[in-house]
Automatic annotation (TrEMBL):
The organism's taxonomic lineage, starting at the top: Bacteria, Pseudomonadati, Pseudomonadota, Alphaproteobacteria, Hyphomicrobiales
Coiled-coil region list: none
Superkingdom per UniProt: Bacteria
Signal peptide range in chain numbering: 1-22
Region (Disordered): 148-172
Domain Cytochrome c: 62-126
Keyword Metal-binding attached: yes
Protein's name according to its UniProt entry: C-type cytochrome, methanol metabolism-related
Compositional bias annotation for Basic and acidic residues: 153-172
Annotated keywords: Heme, Iron, Metal-binding, Signal
Pfam families xrefs: Cytochrome_CBB3
Length: 172
């Protein structure tokens, strides 16, 4: 179990070392533009769009699927954390997009007080990195409280741009 504790400590350290400049809020996460089915906030950061009837955009749904394929083993279902790794739905309240990308791609290692903490790098794992925006979008929706736990009941259709980006990333 030392690796579990190491991963948990590492991610907590990463969040402490790389905090966002301001906490994410529902207002900051609000979608203001849509480019080929992908939503962005006022700062141009990828974000989610959830309709009043609970329909989520494709990228939020894809993020849910990818998270539960690759991330939930350590970080628990729906980003709520585990004894192995912290709650990403909580961490993203204080973590900006760039920090998220850097940690997922490059991983983190922390050596302090005789302990070693490790978050593995996923920058070479196309099943994670090709969907990194999707993961961020899903966790951002969870972090601001706009997406409840569980599989989203409805989703928008997959945009052609998502299909093309996925193909290009997987082949590249």
């Amino acid at each position: 179990m030392p690796i579990r504790a190491a991963v948990s400590a590492l991610l907590l350290t990463a969040v402490a070392l790389f905090p966002a400049y301001a906490q994410d809020s529902k207002e900051a996460a609000k979608a203001v533009t849509n480019e080929d089915g992908k939503y962005f906030d006022a700062d141009g950061t990828p974000t989610f769009n959830i309709k009043e009837d609970g329909t989520v955009d494709w990228y939020t749904f894809s993020g849910y699927r990818r998270y539960h394929s690759d991330c939930h083993v350590c970080h628990g279902p729906d980003g709520v954390g585990s004894t192995y790794a912290p709650a990403l739905a909580q961490s993203l309240k204080d973590m900006d997009y760039g920090t998220f990308i850097a940690i997922v791609a490059g991983g983190r290692q922390n050596l302090s007080a005789g302990k070693e903490s490790v978050m593995p790098a996923f920058g070479d794992n196309k099943n994670v990195y090709c969907y990194i925006d999707d993961l961020y979008i899903y966790l951002r929706a969870r972090a601001v409280g706009d997406l409840p736990r569980g599989r989203p009941p409805k989703r928008e259709d997959k945009p052609a741009a998502a299909t093309e980006a996925e193909r290009a990333c997987m082949e590249g």
